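Hi again,

Forgot to attach this to my earlier email, sorry! This is the prediction with pantoate bound. I've pasted everything inline since the attachment limit keeps bouncing my files.
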Amino acid sequence: MKLIHAIKELREELQRAEAAGKTVGLVPTMGALHAGHASLVARSVKENDVTVVSVFVNPTQFNDKEDLAKYPRTLEADCALLEKMGTTVVFAPSVEEIYPEPDTRVFSFAPLDTVMEGKYRPGHFNGVAQIVSKLFEMVCPDRAYFGEKDFQQLAIIRALVKQQGYAIDIVGCPIVREADGLALSSRNARLSVEERERALGISRTLFASREFAKEHSLVDTKVFVENAIAKADGLRLEYFEVVDGNTLQPVAAWDDADFIVGCITVFCGEVRLIDNIKYKEPGKEL
Ligand code: PAF
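Structure tokens for the complex follow:
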């Protein structure tokens, strides 16, 4: 495994791989890797000759300076995990390497980026599109791997690929959860033991709502989730939206779409956690 910091070196390495006809998988990350990332890397290693994992805490996607400052940075441990998993290249550039000049590009994915995270974190998806488009153009992967935990991000990346005409297959991978249900997130590292216990209320509520949904309307299911989080100690709901899984627009009834997902963001103490649950998916019994 090679640890590369410079774009020039990355390009040279990948040109050799391309010349040898090798397929390339890219797993973009911000580091602080956990089993969720590992599932993306394992899939890329299985499906490609070469796997590039980028580790870069992208400043342009943070709309909160403190969140950026507190984001965990664990490159050494990340590299140890990635080496064991069969990663070919870890690309860990500096901010100056990626942004020698401010990135002034403005993307629009409306209406995908005007709801949920787009509404509560203005500019977030523009920053994500800036870094992901740069990585796509530097790495030119055949496939790129993203987790379904960031459900809205995945939809926006698919839209980015269409808009920019990238010949990249976007592979969405299922949420990885702890045995007790908590969705894995790099932010979980910032939870105290007590907060970690409280955060469980999020996935428990979502799972309970899927049972509730079998006998109740969509509107009542939404209220069920909102009330459960409001009653839970130490949790503060930012939003819970039940949306069409393709358009990300809110739906009012279970018959309004054949792909329906509940997306939630909750503050547990100061830590902002997101999760989601599928209520309906074409061809699947949920
Ligand atoms: O999902 C993430 O970790 C980030 O948003 C990504 C895709 C690596 C871009 O910085």
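Residues 28-30, 58, 61, 128, 131-132, 150, 153 surround pantoate (CB under 6 Å). The mean pLDDT is 97.

That should be everything now.

G.
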